Amino acid sequence: MPDSAPPLKPALIELAAVTKVYGSGEAAMQALRGIDLRIEAGDFVAVMGPSGSGKSTCLNILGCLDTPSAGSYRFEGVEVGALTRDQRAELRRHYLGFVFQGFNLLNRTSALENVELPLLYRGVPVAERHRLARRALDAVGLSGWEGHTPGELSGGQQQRVAIARAIVTEPDVLFADEPTGNLDTARSKEIMELLTVFNREQGITIVMVTHEADMAAYARRIVRFVDGQVDSDLRAGEST
Amino acid sequence: MLWNALLLALREIRRNVLRSFLTILGIVIGVAAVIVMVTLGGGATAQVTEQISSLGTNLLMVRPGQRMAFGQMSAAKQFDMADVEAIERHISSVLAVAPASSSPITAVYGNRNWSTSVNGVDNRYFPVRNWSLAKGREFTDSELRAGSSVCILGETVRRELFGSQDSLGAKLRLKKLSCEVIGVLESKGQSTMGSDQDDLVLMPLRAFQRRIAGNRDIGLIQVSVRDGVSTEQVKQKIEEHLRIRRHIAANEDDDFQVLDMKEIAQMLAGTTQVLTALLSAVAAVSLLVGGIGIMNIMLVSVTERTREIGIRLAIGALEREVLLQFLVEAVVLSSFGGLIGIALALGASVLLADLMQIPFVFNPGIVVLAFMFSAAVGVIFGYFPARKAARLDPIEALRHE
Ligand SMILES: Nc1ncnc2c1ncn2[C@@H]1O[C@H](COP(=O)(O)OP(=O)(O)OP(=O)(O)O)[C@@H](O)[C@H]1O
Ligand SMILES: [Mg+2]
Asked: What is the rounded CA–CA span in Å between residue A60 and residue A43?
């Protein structure tokens, strides 16, 4: 079988026997129970599964926000678990974009400044920052809303600001945790089409958590989590 | 990065103007207190130093009696004119010897009266005590010899009795004595001890002895010493000489006192400096308390902004970048406190110096020092909250409500 042949080049993302335990002793809670997952550069992966199955936990580990309790996570061949906090921050800053479950924008801060934030930490000069942030907001259809704070934006608009913030640095990988969670179908479709464009035209690898099969249908690959384990892993076109 | 942190800090402070103001109040008060204390202390010291020269630097005051506890003087035989002449004749290096005698008295003019002190003196009193006349003239030899009823007023007495009226030639009443005003002294203002130097009446010594005191006593001999001669030595010679004249046995204590004004002034200046240092230390403690106030608010701020910190960390901010942001905020806060404190202190110092009639001595050193100190307070007390912020776990911080 061709699938079992060892790959010549390491995949962009390789999870091997990753577990995550929250708490300790009596209160210990095993969120991930041995995840093996490979994601190649340029892929568009949807992660599905019931609530509490460990999707967000897994995405946080993939996004280098968190580290596995055990097992190995290699990003472009680099063992993330061995990196320091600051090294992981550098990794996030330069290669990763993250759209959080819940928008996590800075309150009382304009859309433009929210989108500029990752550029600020990359040390991009102010004029360039404005230009890139405007372009990203334009890409998510929010030109004209630059000066509005999250409080003055609808949920869908906030979600799009969050996406603009994640793609403004042109990351290698975009992690999105339920990017359409709070949106109606029409808005959700807009955002999915946006992600599809980023994936196709800019070659950004996307890993997206979603509850909705409609949204997962935009992805090329669907990974299903159940109880902290990968239950199924299907390519588009394959059937369950 | 520093510039961005500064902008962020300013914005954060603007968002919480009232809270920021209350936070830095401690620093404001601390800085203001330190500067006011040091400035006023410096003014007082400068004033004392100036009064050394206004008194006549080389002045010795010889008084009968010894100072006992609580500022009282032991009773002892008064001096007389023979003592004055003896000092003049036997002690070399003496420039002038001015005898004086005084007593409290009520001066009356028309329907006004004023409690003051009357001093019997001769013309040597003026150069010895650095007095000059604003109006009128000194005593004439014949007035001094005859003990005429003439007097020279200090500015305070003139103001209280005559106000805007002309005082020269007027007759005022001292006890039963009617006394013609022949001059007014130039004002000297308050002394270091807070007493009014201008509150006095001068009259010929002989007139005072005969008409007011009713004796021939001399209560005070003021001796001015030549420049370049040690007052210490002259003081010693006067003491030896007076001991012989007053028949004091070797085992007895002096029954008189020779005060070296320079010594007193130096002692006073020293006391002022110690007092200044003490008060400044107390003020510095309030700076410390202000620092704790800043730490408290920064800790609250870190807790309130946990989610913001989480977002920044998740997006790729390094620990030291978050640390810097909060540290800069604390330093900006405390520096603002310092600046406001400095402005307040300078205003208050000018006002208080005026009120206390001491010179305003601007001390740029202490202003700079107080500012640096306030900034340092920001660094020291801001560091712990900032480190707390920087060490937050991004995931935990993002989940924080
Ligand atoms: N910080 C934490 N501390 C303790 N337990 C946690 C923590 N984060 C997640 N968990 C637990 O781990 C399990 C997996 O959580 P996770 O957020 O990954 O689920 P999810 O699949 O994203 O669910 P949902 O679809 O509701 O977002 C849950 O049972 C949750 O209670
Ligand atoms: Mg989740």
From this structure: 18
CA B326, chain centre distance (Å): 43
Mutate one of A61, A65, A95 to test the B interface: name it (highest B CB count within 10 A): A65
Distance of CA B277 to the CA centre of its chain: 13
pLDDT tens digits for B145-194? 999 999 999 999 999 999 888 889 999 999 888 999 999 999 887 765 66
Q: Is the pLDDT reported for residue A5 higher than 70?
A: no
Q: Is the CB of A28 under 6 A from ligand 1?
A: no
A92 CB near ligand 1 (under 6 Å):
no
Rounded to whole angstroms, the Cα distance separating B399 from A57 reads 12
Task: Tell me the pLDDT of chain A averaged across its residues.
Answer: 89
Token pair 């109606």 is found at A184
Probe site for chain B from A91, A106, A107, A149 (most B CB atoms < 10 A): A106
Range name among A2-6, B47-51, B162-166 with the lowest pLDDT average: A2-6
Taking a C-beta distance cutoff of 8 angstroms, is the pair B202, B148 a contact?
A: no
Coil, helix or strand at residue A237 = coil
Tokens of B184: 């007014």
> Residue B355 — pLDDT band, cuts 50, 70, 90?
confident
Q: Could you tell me the two tokens for B232? A: 């210490």
Residue A239 pLDDT class (50, 70, 90 cuts): low
Question: Rounded CA gap, A101 and B27, in Å?
Answer: 42
Residues 6+ apart with CB under 8 A from A207: A13, A39, A45, A47, A59, A62, A173, A174, A175, A176
Classify residue A225 by its DSSP letter: E
Which chain B residues have a beta carbon less than 8 Å from that of A69?
Answer: none
Does residue A55 have its Cβ closer than 6 Å to ligand 1? yes
Residue B53 clears pLDDT 70, i.e. is over it: no
> Which candidate, B78, B8, B85, B92, places its Cα nearest to that of B325?
B8
By the CB < 8 Å criterion, does B399 face chain A? no
Q: How far is CA B47 from the centre of its chain?
A: 6
Q: At what angle do helices B319-355 and A85-95 cross, to 10 degrees?
A: 100
Strand partners for B112: B109
Residues of A in Cβ contact (< 8 Å) with B317: 89, 93, 121
Interval A44-77: pLDDT, tens: 999 999 999 999 999 999 999 999 999 999 999 8
* C-beta of residue B87 within 8 angstroms of C-beta of residue B94: yes
Contacts of B277 (CB under 8 A, 6+ apart): B41
Angle at which helices B319-355 and B17-54 pack, to 10 degrees? 40
Answer yes or no: is the C-beta of A51 below 6 A from any ligand 1 atom: yes
Structure tokens belonging to residue B205: 């010594």
Query: Which atom of ligand 1 approaches the CA of B395 most closely?
Result: 1
Find the CB nearest B316 among A60, A66, A121.
A121
Percent residues over pLDDT 70 in chain A: 95
pLDDT tens digits along B281-339: 887 788 888 889 899 999 999 999 999 999 999 998 999 999 999 999 999 999 999 99
CA distance A161 to chain B (A): 14
Contact criterion met (CB below 8 Å) for B32 and B337: no
Domain residue extents for chain B: 2-51+266-399, 77-254
